[in-house]
Design goal:
Blueprint lengths: L1 E2 L5 E8 L2 E9 L5 E7 L2 E9 L5 E8 L2 E8 L5 E2 L13
Antiparallel strand pairs: 1-2, 2-3, 3-4, 4-5, 5-6, 6-7, 7-8
Length: 93
């Protein structure tokens, strides 16, 4: 577990073979929390974040360390329309 200079928790989770593994929680300002899972050091599954007021801020789904979906809410709990996917740039040949 890592702590901020004021003694409050900063991160909590486990390492296996020098890689983050299992459930991890990160704290920022009071109330701003992020929780999710790591597998072999890579983000995996559902990650959740909360606003300072306790309202859910986001749910992000990861597969093999890549974001596959995201839902966000404002501080009042209203759904924020996610940005539309942008087309990938054409490779330079």
């Amino acid at each position: 577990m890592l702590k901020w200079n004021n003694g409050q928790k900063k991160t909590e989770g486990e390492y296996r073979n020098d890689q983050k593994e299992g459930k991890w929680t990160e704290w920022y300002k009071p109330g701003i929390t992020i929780e999710g899972e790591y597998r072999k050091g890579r983000e995996e599954g559902k990650w959740e974040a909360w606003h300072e007021n306790g309202q859910k801020a986001a749910e992000v789904e990861y597969r093999d360390d890549a974001e596959v979906s995201r839902i966000e809410w404002d501080t009042n709990g209203n759904l924020i329309q996610p940005p539309q996917p942008q087309p990938s740039p054409s490779p330079i040949t």
